[in-house]
Amino acid sequence: MEEKKTHKFLNFILFIIVLIASIVLYSRYIGVKGLIVKEYRVESQILTKNFSGLKIVHFTDLLYKSTVDEKDLEKLINKINVLAPDIIVFTGDLVTNIKTSEKDKEILIKYLSKLDSKIGKYAIYGDHDYMYDDFKIVMEESDFIILNNEYDTIYNETNDPMYIVGLPTSSKEEINLEEAFKFYNEEDRKYIITLIHDGKTIDKINEANYEVDLILGGHSLNGSVIVPFYGPLFIDDNSGKYFEEKYTKGITNIFISSGIGTDKYNFRFNNRPSFNLYRLKSQS
């Protein structure tokens, strides 16, 4: 009887070891692939009718040379272009801390320049981008407008505008809300999209008197590994309390994309690489 119990116990231990090993291998080699698109409908009473139906593609944390290679980059660009977006936004972390070569720079420009949008392409700095000397060159040669404590005015068919604001990552540069929102008119509010990299930046917006409609960010990778009934494993301080896919605060819709690559740990579980597609809908 004791021998049978010992045998069952050893089988159970073996099963646990095999299970853990399988999850680790899956997370390292399968979970980091299989790019998906997450689609959201975003409604607003402030949005004017000329922007109703507008399609925005949001990708972030490419982290090229982590678990993302040239083939993955090509697939990403093709998937985005098929959607025929009006606006494309990138919310930071183009490459990893791994040394990138001149060839890597050429590859990034080659594919990112192929991204096609009807109105414009916008980007902001993530924390990794301050360590990549060619970030500005890559994005500008790929026809992205970099917004760094800045804004741009967007028009579509009529003279009714919307605004897009870009803020730098809170861990590397001072966020200047007064400069970024100098267009702001509380009495004649227009629809405002705000690009942020990490969740702590959202806290700074919340503390100010600027009301925005749509906040798009990244950084957290939604925790990389999401354990059922427990939640995300890898959340750093800069993510703050904003690391899940979606939040609503008053009239503000907040979306945190899970990103494309990986950061400190090259694992993804229950959390495929993804980018977001938003379809704006006017309720006015």
Description:
There is one protein chain. With 284 residues, the protein is α/β, with parallel strands linked by helices. It contains six helices and 14 strands. It has helices spanning 2-30, 70-82, 102-112, 135-141, 177-180, 199-207, and strands at residues 36-44, 55-59, 87-90, 120-123, 145-146, 150-155, 161-166, 192-195, 214-217, 226-227, 231-232, 246-249, 252-256, 274-282. The strands form three sheets. A six-stranded mixed β-sheet has the order 1-14-2-3-4-5, with helices on one face. The longest helix has 29 residues, at 2-30. It is globular, with a radius of gyration of 21 Å. The model has no long low-confidence stretch (mean pLDDT 92).
Question: Features of this protein?
Answer:
alpha/beta
Q: Give the N-terminus to C-terminus distance in angstroms.
A: 75 Å
The helix/strand class is alpha/beta
The SSE order reads: HEEHEHEHEEEHEHEEEEEE
Helicity level, as a percent range? 25-40%
Mean pLDDT: 92
Largest sheet: 6 strands, mixed
Which stretches are low in confidence, meaning pLDDT under 50 for 5 or more residues running? Answer: none
Strand order, sheet with most strands: 1-14-2-3-4-5
Number of strands: 14
Net shape: globular
Count every helix, treating DSSP H or I runs of 4 or more residues as helices. 6
Strand content: 15-25%
CA radius of gyration = 21 Å
Write the layout of secondary structure elements.
Elements: H1 2-30, E1 36-44, E2 55-59, H2 70-82, E3 87-90, H3 102-112, E4 120-123, H4 135-141, E5 145-146, E6 150-155, E7 161-166, H5 177-180, E8 192-195, H6 199-207, E9 214-217, E10 226-227, E11 231-232, E12 246-249, E13 252-256, E14 274-282
Parallel strand pairs: 1-14, 2-3, 3-4, 4-5, 7-8, 8-9, 9-13
Antiparallel strand pairs: 2-14, 6-7, 10-11, 12-13
Helix pairs in contact: 2-3
